Amino acid sequence: MLLAPLLPRRGLGLAPLLAAAGRRWATQAKPRPGRSGALTRERRRAQAAVGGAAAAAALAGSRAAFSLFSQEAEEATEEDAEKGESKETEDAIIFLLKKAKMANLAFLRGQLEEAEKLFKAAMSFLLAGDMKQDDNAIIEMSLKLASIYAAQDQDKLALAGYEFCILTLEEKIDKQQDMPTEEERANTRLLLGLSLDSYARYLLAHSQAALAQKMYERALQISVEVQGEKHPQTVVLMNDLATALDAQGHYDDAYAHVSRASELARQTEHPEAHVVLNNLAGILMHKEDFSQAKEVYKEALKRAEESGDGASVRHIREELAELAKRRRRSQVAGGEER
Hints:
The chain has 14 helices and no strands.
């Protein structure tokens, strides 16, 4: 049994992606003289907070999906509309900041229902501020919502979210001339890679390894082209692609990918190198290269202990015990054949 996909998924970070949102808020109402500096700082804080909130892995679904947003957020938007122009802008930023921080905290604590409500409220508020549905900020929060629905076994909503994110980003990339800067084009491609990665993990968890493999292959290609082969996320994707291949019994192809991932993990001092090495050992075991598998498991165990990853330590020890059993069975079978 492989650990992957167990490496932490890091979002793109929406601070740069929400810069456009900040500009949209600014064009709706001008701040009073003497307050522009404070407002700019609040805007930067709001953008950074939403970036953190959308960092790990989707519903938005379609236009119908947005009808699920909480009434609380809609009422807050109406109340803000009745205030003065500069007050409206400042309140909008503060509201977004609070919702984003609360959503992220709830998600990290595993309070998925609360996180869902808060993410919907933040998205509703951004859309009410004239942000488009295909804005990268909206899509990344939609991806976060899809991961919540996947964790709750709400498969229809999760699938709708993944489909929305992937198809919308593909359409957006096809119209690259509409994106003003190279940075935005790169961020959009990386967000597509993140969506493909998240969807692949969902598929793998639902025993659809062949389709997961295709998603991982596309995500890996994007990561290599935009970030390079040695980037931490590229190593993660190589590792996870190997897991999908291993699940289908394609051990040689799986070994090719995971051995390269482990080599890069060692070179770059990847913080999750022990997870990659564990997978390498597991695939070696499936290939019945028991001696080499044992050596790699030992290295993975040492690194896991040094990193303080107790869950991985326990898992690797279980795998070593399984390796010993398989090795004995193989020896017995070989003796009987003789």
